[in-house]
């Protein structure tokens, strides 16, 4: 298992991310290179890339992930929102390639009332305007929870986007256990069935990252509220089975649970403890 968590890059960039991940006894990690509040991004050459990779090799941390800003919405009907999103994603591709990472996870977008079909078409159009085919990484479309006007709640929506993109070889998928369960995929009782559907609809070769979160709400609730491992409707045993599944053994498995109890939750998923982490206020994986 490559277990890790969403960590900080405050002040010292990747050095901070690696240090925090070491404290959790993690194998990988995920970062944001720019604030979700907007504004100019910190220059990427201030992230201490080379020193951080040297330290990662020493301690066995590998395959880190970048999550794109929530402010990017390629499904928007507003021209200024679309232009901003395309600008940020173009910049982020260059920044992440500089860091030497292989994955950018992005929320597909929110159609904000225009309908899923329109949202799918807009997202694909935006990606077609951005991707050249020369990228050295994958853009991983994240599966959504069924809330609001988000696109990507069903695997078929992700597949439709990929089909419409010219350079689809640069596209992959990030699943999220909270999102999938909330969207109506019963991964607690039939994770194999979910993966079989994923393979039929998208292809398992495109599964590159997984977010591992419990859910504050019950099955098929259509709510995006992450809970601590074992404190939600998925439960410890189901999540342990998922992270140990052979289909997920070579990809980064990233926790985005509330409260910062990552060392405890990683140990719990590894079977090193059966004690549940403290329960923290529910967290959402971004807004509309």
Strand order of the largest sheet: 1-2-3-4-5-6-7-10
Low-confidence stretches: none
Mean pLDDT: 97
Percentage of helical residues?
Answer: 25-40%
Portion in beta strands: 5-15%
| Order of secondary-structure elements | EHEHEHEHEHEHHEEEHEH
What is the terminal separation in angstroms? 32 Å
Features of this protein?
288 residues, alpha/beta, eight-stranded parallel β-barrel, two-stranded antiparallel sheet, 9 helices, 10 strands, 14% strand, globular
Characterise this structure.
This protein has 288 residues and is α/β, with parallel strands linked by helices. Helices cover 35% and strands 14% of the residues. The chain has nine helices and ten strands. The strands form two sheets. An eight-stranded parallel beta barrel has the order 1-2-3-4-5-6-7-10. Helix 4 packs across helix 5. The model has no long low-confidence stretch (mean pLDDT 97).
Summarize the topology.
Elements: E1 2-6, H1 14-23, E2 28-31, H2 49-59, E3 65-67, H3 79-99, E4 103-106, H4 116-130, E5 138-142, H5 155-164, E6 171-176, H6 177-182, H7 191-201, E7 207-212, E8 214-215, E9 226-227, H8 236-243, E10 252-255, H9 262-270
Parallel strand pairs: 1-2, 1-10, 2-3, 3-4, 4-5, 5-6, 6-7, 7-10
Antiparallel strand pairs: 8-9
């Amino acid at each position: 298992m490559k277990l890790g968590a969403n960590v900080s890059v405050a002040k010292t960039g990747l050095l901070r991310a690696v240090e925090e991940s070491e404290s959790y006894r993690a194998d990988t990690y995920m970062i944001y290179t720019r604030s979700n509040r907007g504004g100019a991004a910190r220059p990427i050459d201030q992230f201490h890339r080379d020193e951080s990779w040297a330290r990662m090799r020493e301690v066995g941390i590998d395959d880190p992930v970048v999550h794109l800003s929530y402010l990017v919405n390629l499904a928007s009907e507003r021209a200024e929102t679309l232009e901003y999103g395309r600008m940020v994603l173009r910049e982020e591709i260059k920044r992440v390639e500089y860091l030497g990472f292989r994955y950018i996870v992005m929320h597909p977008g929110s159609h904000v009332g225009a309908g899923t079909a329109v949202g799918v078409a807009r997202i694909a159009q935006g990606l077609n305007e951005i991707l050249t085919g020369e990228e050295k990484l994958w853009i991983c479309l994240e599966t959504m929870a069924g809330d609001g006007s988000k696109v990507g709640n069903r695997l078929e929506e992700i597949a439709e986007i990929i089909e419409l993109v010219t350079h689809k070889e640069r596209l992959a998928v990030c699943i999220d256990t909270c999102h999938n369960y909330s969207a109506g995929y019963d991964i607690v009782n039939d994770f194999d069935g979910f993966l079989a559907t994923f393979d039929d609809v998208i292809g398992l070769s495109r599964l590159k990252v997984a977010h591992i979160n419990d859910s504050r709400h019950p099955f098929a609730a259509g709510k995006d509220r992450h809970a601590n491992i074992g404190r939600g409707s998925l439960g410890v045993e189901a999540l342990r089975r998922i992270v140990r599944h052979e289909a997920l053994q070579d990809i980064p498995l990233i926790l985005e649970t509330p409260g910062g109890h990552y060392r405890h939750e990683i140990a719990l998923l590894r079977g090193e403890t059966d004690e549940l982490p403290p329960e923290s206020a529910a967290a959402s994986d971004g807004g509309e």
